[in-house]
Write a structure and sequence with these properties.
The protein is mainly α. The chain has one domain. 77% of the residues lie in helices and 0% in strands. Helix 1 packs antiparallel against helix 3. The longest helix is centred in the middle third of the chain and has 25 residues. The model has no long low-confidence stretch (mean pLDDT 86).
Length: 112
């Protein structure tokens, strides 16, 4: 249940109109948006890996890949369906980094 709830929360946050976000200039200087993506996607991978409690490396790889595909799909959704949002390859890179961090954490701590 926590993993499904996190997925719903991420979806809501990723489809908010661009006007719903603060326009603070200092946030862009510290790449706050990218850190948020890393946090969202690393948590997503950990929760989905933890939810199954299986110790198979293939499952963790599948979860990590699915999360990254979800992130890429959300960028296209933002581009074509969400007001004041656009496709950003930097977000995809941040999503991928988050997925890899989540995979590494899951493989090291959850499988035991």
């Amino acid at each position: 249940m926590p993993a499904a709830g996190w997925l719903i929360l991420c979806t809501i946050l990723l489809v908010l109109p661009g006007s719903a976000f603060p326009k603070e200039d200092w946030l862009s200087k510290i790449w706050f948006d990218k850190w948020v993506h890393i946090g969202l996607f690393s948590t997503m991978v950990v929760l989905w890996c933890w939810g199954g409690q299986k110790k198979f490396k293939k499952k963790y790889i599948l979860v990590t890949t699915a999360a990254l595909v979800y992130g890429i799909a959300m960028e296209f959704i933002q581009q074509y369906f969400v007001v004041n949002r656009s496709f950003d390859t930097g977000d995809i890179v941040a999503d991928a980094i988050g997925c890899l961090i989540g995979y590494g954490f899951s493989w090291k701590y959850i499988k035991k």
